UniProtKB/TrEMBL annotation:
<dbReference type="GO" id="GO:0003824">
    <property type="term" value="F:catalytic activity"/>
</dbReference>
<feature type="short sequence motif" description="Histidine triad motif">
    <location>
        <begin position="101"/>
        <end position="105"/>
    </location>
</feature>
<feature type="domain" description="HIT">
    <location>
        <begin position="8"/>
        <end position="117"/>
    </location>
</feature>
<dbReference type="InterPro" id="IPR019808">
    <property type="entry name" value="Histidine_triad_CS"/>
</dbReference>
<protein>
    <submittedName>
        <fullName>Histidine triad (HIT) protein</fullName>
    </submittedName>
</protein>
<dbReference type="InterPro" id="IPR036265">
    <property type="entry name" value="HIT-like_sf"/>
</dbReference>
<feature type="active site" description="Tele-AMP-histidine intermediate">
    <location>
        <position position="103"/>
    </location>
</feature>
<dbReference type="Pfam" id="PF01230">
    <property type="entry name" value="HIT"/>
</dbReference>
<dbReference type="InterPro" id="IPR011146">
    <property type="entry name" value="HIT-like"/>
</dbReference>
<dbReference type="InterPro" id="IPR001310">
    <property type="entry name" value="Histidine_triad_HIT"/>
</dbReference>
Length: 117
């Protein structure tokens, strides 16, 4: 697993790696994905290094709620809430997780098919 010292998202939060930030507060950081799969593709990450959904603790309930609420507010801010959007979390290798810091993809701006692809 990735330690916070070697985590690309922790380095983005610390401004060691540049990003196109769209939101930051004491708990969360959100930025445009560098390889978007939709016209709007924002990553929402907690500043607390949590490897995946599998590592969540009871104490993280409020933090997860903040992420979902922030996704809704960003969808409104970027004009995708009326037509719909997707909030995605990939967990583990078979789930498609490539960065081992929990994160959520806010996707919208076009008709999203299911299954994704």
């Amino acid at each position: 697993m990735t330690s916070p010292e070697n985590c690309i998202f922790c380095k983005i939060i610390a401004n060691e790696i540049p990003s196109k930030k769209v939101f930051e507060d004491e708990a969360l950081f959100a930025f445009h994905d560098i390889s978007p799969v939709a016209p709007l593709h924002i990553l929402i990450i907690p500043k607390k290094h949590i490897t995946s959904l599998n590592e969540l603790l009871h104490e993280d309930i409020d933090l997860m709620g903040q992420i979902v609420l922030r996704a809704s507010l960003l969808a409104k801010e970027f004009g995708i809430s009326d037509h719909g959007y997707r909030l995605v979390n990939n967990c583990g290798e078979f789930g498609g997780q490539t960065v081992h810091h929990i994160h959520f993809h806010l996707l919208g701006g076009r008709h999203l098919t299911w299954p994704p692809g």
